[in-house]
Every structure is written in structure tokens, then in C-alpha cells.
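Need C-alpha cells for this chain, all 490 residues.
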Amino acid sequence: MDETEVSQFGALFQEFLERVVHTARSGPEGTESLVARVESFVESDPLALPVVTEQFRSFEHATIQVALEHLLERPGIRHELVGVAGGGREHHSLTELLEASRRHGAFWVGAVDYTAVPVSVDDERTCVRFGLYLVDDGRQRLALLLRGGNPSHGQLPSLEVLARTAEDGRAWLAGLRDERAARNALRGQVLSFEPSEFEPGVGPIRFHRRPELDRLDVVLPDGVLERIERQVVGVARHRERLLAEGRHLKRGVLFYGPPGTGKTHTVRYLTGGLHEFTVILLAGPAIRFVAEACAMARVLQPSLIVLEDCDLVAEDRSFTPNGNPLLFTVLDEMDGLTSDSDVCFLLTTNRVDLLETALAQRPGRVDLAVEIPLPDAAGRRRLLDIYGRGIELPAADVDQVVERTAGVPASFVKEMTRRATLIAAERGVALTEAEDVHAAADELMAAQEVLTRRLLGTPGEEEGEVGAYPSRGWFAYAPRRHERLTAPPD
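Here are the C-alpha cells for all 490 residues:
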């Protein structure tokens, strides 16, 4: 067999294989070829037209859907949504789908695939997971393939635009970006980033219910909350005047103080009251997503980025290729926002000593540092009133409890009142009374509760010294059950 015969055999065998594949892959009888539908709509050969593609994050899927629907609802625009049927379609670009449809009959017009995408704590939005929009905008005809992502295969969601020219496709995507910015489904939400299960970087978005806290439930020294509100809320409220006078909007606020004093509680109050703000929560390892958080905050401003327990990353070099602590990366991202960005960074720490050097080396990132101290007597009285609702506690007992809880954080008062209710319930009485509160305090003061006290944020006891006598505070010694504390032993 010479070369000519070999070439002829190869051509015949290839034709045979294509016919076999065409027969195996062709759609059911009566179905319409995908390429035929697109060709009849655009009135030209679709394989000769350019395709412009834009990828986006999975958490942007609902926003893309909303923006696309609003674009298609504009006057003078007609559109049709069709599905794409055929095995393996998710692995092919729009051009490849059309080519395989023409050559092998591999893909045909079918049902549209949909998926439910969360858009808040309680709501979902139905979005196209795989569908082809045939759009006539009055000037030209386009085909838009919208597909959801497949994280397990490393595929991001995307929108592919087949248009008369590449410039037309890019212009259409630019209009979609403007619509996305105006109608972002994440605007005004409280959310946090989840790590991706399949690759480094951000995965899905987790939505949080906006807290509802009364201002009177925030126990801080006089004037402190007013300063915080002026810096966080006041800048947004007086945005136009500040800009008119050349002032910057970007700001950073640091809450510092011992554990359990109310830093997170104050953050929750601000989060609950800033209904027009998009709040992005970054805590623990999620702080490494600060770049993504800043990018989102720019789009969704006014925004609040909360970075809790920043001291945990003050010396953490595990996420930075140049070996600098992660906190430096956080501070650099803060500085990267323009001065007119209505974005507030809210940092909390129990160890301001670990942050001070880094903050001093990156001046201007934090405009206000607020100490959230251990509550004084007036503060403990307010805490007892807040957390002791429903407890029968005469004024004399209130005075005694306030006096003997000197040096405790708010978290201790909260736990003490809960234990008092449990003690009353175990006694089988309907109301929680003063003796239950004193019993709960006695129990928490016991030597065996030293670790509990430390975990509640109470300072003053040396590590390993159970029942140690600090220089002050209600834990001066461990009294017997129901015994009143008056003074430490000699």
C-alpha cells in the first residue's frame, strides 16, 4: 500500500468516525441544531463572529443576573432565552459549542438550566446556570452565553458575548458592568468571606443577620460612644460637606482593651445601626482576604470593613510572600483606597502592644483609637440592669453586687446573671431572686473557676495560681456558697 492509498484510507476512516460521532451525538428527532438557531438569529455565520468573555466570582452570580435582566428590559430591546443540550457542554466555550454543533451535531437547543443563589440570610434568587440569550437591541443582534461556575473543576462563572465586532462585545460588557455597580445584590448586606474548598482564595459569601441592639445597651464611659459614632457614622452623614472642603472620607478606628469588655458588642451595635452600609466581616484566617474586601468595599460604599482580633496577625507571616507580617498587608490595603472612598475600617484587639509598632510604621491608617476599658461602678450597674432583666434584685443587693464585682468585664456580668437564672430554675422557683445572683457570683468566685474567670476576660490572676489573691476585685478569695464577700482574708 503506497502513500496515496494510505492517505485515502485515512480520509475515509476520518469521515467514518465523524459520521459515527454525528449519529451518536445528534439530538433527538425534532430538535434544532444550536448553530442553526444562532445562525438564523444573527443572520450570518456565527463561527465567523468574535466572542468576548468576562469571568466573575461565584458570589457575583446574582448581581450579574439582576444587571442582565435590567439591561434586557430597556425599551427597544427584544430577547429570547434558550437552553443548550448535549453532554460535556460545560467544558466548551461558546465558539466550541457552535463548531461541535455544526460538525458533529453535538449540541442542540434544549431546556434552560437554573440554580438558586443566596442573596441574603433568608432569600435566594433564581439565576440562569446555563443558558443562551439571543438579543436584538435595535442596532445589532448578539448571543450571550451565561454559565454558572463549577468550583470542583476550577471554573468561574462567565458571560460570553458573540457580537458583530469585538468592540461591540466589549461595549456591551461595559454597559453590563455599569449596571452591576448600580444594582449589586450585595449592597447593604452584612457578609463575610468563606475560603474556597478547591483552590486558594475566596470561596462563597456567607450572609449574616444584621444585629438589633439598642443604644442604651452599649455600656461605655461617658462620651466614648459619641466619639465613635461621629467618626464612623458622621463622616458618611456629612460626606458632601467634607468633600466640598477637601476633607478625606476614608477612616480607620481601633477598639482596644481587655477581653470581654464590649469591643465586639460595640461593633454589633454599629453594624445594626448602619443600615445603608455594606458590612464586611474579616476575622481569624479570613483577614487574608482583605484585598478582596477592599475591592468590594469600593464598589459598595458606604462600607464598613471589620477586622477583629488584629493582634492575631500582627506577627503572622504565613500569607505574605515577602515575609512581612500579615498586619502590614492589611495596613497597606487600607492605604490603597482613595481618600474620597466612603469606607471605614474598624479594628479590634486585646493586645494593643502588638499593634502599636506596626501602626506607628504605617501612620495615617487609624484616625481614632478608642480604649474599651473594664467597666467602672456606674458601668457595672448598667450592665446588671441590662443583663439582669427579669431578676428580683433590691437596691441594696444591687449595690453589693456592683461593689463586689469590681474589676470584672461585661462578659462576667452576663454569665453571672445567666447562672443565677439556672440556679433559680433548679431550686424550682418562678422568679430569679437576689440569693440566686449572690450564689452565681459565689460559684464563679470559687477556686475551681479560676480558668473560667480567665476565659471570661477577668484580669489580675497569675497563670497557674488557682485562687490567688489579686490586689483588687471580687475574686479576692473564694467564699463558701451563699457567703457574702466583705474583705479579703488577712
